[in-house]
Amino acid sequence: MTCVAVIGATGQLGSEVVRAFERGGGYIVTGLSHGDVECADPASVAEALVPHRPEVVVNCAAFVRVDECEDRPEKAFRVNALGALHVARASAQVGARCVYISTDYVFDGIKPEPYTEEDAPNPINVYGTSKLAGEYLVRQTCPDALIVRLASLYGSQGARGKGTNFVLTILDRARRGETLRVVNDIRMSPTYAPDAAAAIVGLIERGTTGVVHVVNDGSCTWYELARRALALAGLEVRVDPVPHTAYPMRARRPVNSALSTARLRALGLASRSWEDALAEYVARVIGGAGTAALG
Questions:
Q1: Which CATH superfamily is domain 2-157+191-218+259-271 in?
Q2: Using the 8-state DSSP alphabet, how is residue 60 labeled?
Q3: Which helix H or strand E contains 201, and what residues bound it?
Q4: 3-state secondary structure of 2
Q5: How far apart (Å, rounded) are the C-alpha atoms in residues 187 and 104?
Q6: 127 belongs to the catalytic site
Q7: How far is Cα 189 from Cα 259, in angstroms, rounded to an integer?
Q8: Residue 94 belongs to what H/E stretch?
Q9: SS3 content of the chain, % helix, strand, coil (to 5)
Q10: Alpha-carbon distance 263 to 270, whole Å?
Q11: Number of Cα atoms under 13 Å in the Cβ half of residue 38
C-alpha cells in the first residue's frame, strides 16, 4: 500500500483527488484540510506530514481569489509560493514525491494557440506570479517533483472560499430568469475536477516528473461555456456576449490561456473533450448531485 497525503483535501480539486486515490485501491490516503495544516507555517506542515511519512504528497492548497491576490500580494506569495516551498521541504525530508498544483495563469495570453509545457511563462497578475514562484521553489527543492497546471476548474463542490463555480453560477442565475452577460473574448480550457484528479493519479502511477498540463481537451470562451451548459440543462435564457472590459477587474486576465494536452496524450492519459465532460457534470447537477447548489 502506498501512503499518500493530500493537502487541501476539502477543496474542489483536493476532494476529488482523495476520491480518485480511494477508487484506485492500493493507497492509504490522508486528507489534510486547512484546519489540519497551515501551509504558510513550516512547523505546521512538518507536524502534519512527518508523522505520517507519506510516499506521495499532493499539494492542492492555494489562495485562488485572483482579484483579491492583487490587494493582498503578501498572502498570495505566503500561501502559493512559500507554502509550496514548505510542503516541498517536508516532502524531501520524508523522501516523498511532491506534486504541486499550478495554473494556466502563469502565461500572458499573447500566444494565439494553446500553450505547451515548453512555452515560457510570463504571468500578468499577482496570482499567476505567485503560482509560478511556487513552481520554481518546488522544483528547486524536489527535482523529481510533478507540476500539474490546471485551468478553469469546476466540480461537485465549489472552490474553497467561493462556495460555487462558474457553471453552477450560470445555471443558478438562469433558473432565476436573469438575463446573462458573459465574456466572449477570453479563451481557456475548462477542466472537470474528477477528470483532473484521475489524470493526476495516473501521472503519479507513471512516475511522471516535470510540468504537465491537465485539462479537458479543447478550449472555448466563457460565453461558449455558458451557452453549452444552459443548452445541456434545457434552460432557455438570453445570453449576451460581452468583451472582458465590460467587467473591470483588479487583476488582468490572459486573453488566451488555453492549454495543450499533447504531453498528457503522449503519456497515455488522453482527456475527453470539455464538451463531453460538461455534459456529464450538468447531467449530475440536473439529476440531483448538485441541485443544492442551485438553490
A1: NAD(P)-binding Rossmann-like Domain (3.40.50.720)
A2: -
A3: helix 193-205
A4: strand
A5: 11
A6: yes
A7: 6
A8: helix 83-94
A9: 45, 20, 40
A10: 9
A11: 7
Where along the chain do its domains lie?
Answer: 2-157+191-218+259-271
Are the CB atoms for 114 and 151 separated by under 8 Å? no
C-alpha cell belonging to residue 141: 527543492
Give CA–CA dist 284/295, Å, rounded: 15
DSSP bridge pairs for 7:
32, 59
Are the CB atoms for 195 and 272 separated by under 8 Å?
A: yes
Q: Quick count: other Cβ atoms within 10 Å of Cβ 92?
A: 16
Average pLDDT per 10 consecutive residues for the chain, totaling 295 residues: 96 96 93 95 96 95 96 98 98 97 98 98 98 98 98 77 80 93 97 97 97 98 98 94 94 98 95 96 80 39
pLDDT (0 to 100) of residue 294: 40
Q: Which one from 127, 192, 223, 281 is the annotated catalytic residue?
A: 127
Distance CA 263, CA 122 (A): 20
Neighbours of 23 (CB within 10 A): 12
Report CA 109 to chain centroid distance, whole Å. 18
The three-state secondary structure class of 122 is coil
What's the grid cell of residue 100? Answer: 504541486
Neighbours of 133 (CB within 10 A): 19
What gap in Å lies between CA 82 and CA 74, rounded to an integer? Answer: 10
Where are any strands of DSSP class E within the chain?
Answer: 2-7, 27-32, 56-59, 97-103, 146-150, 153-154, 180-183, 187-188, 191-192, 210-213, 220-221, 239-242
* Cell numbers 506521495: residue: 56
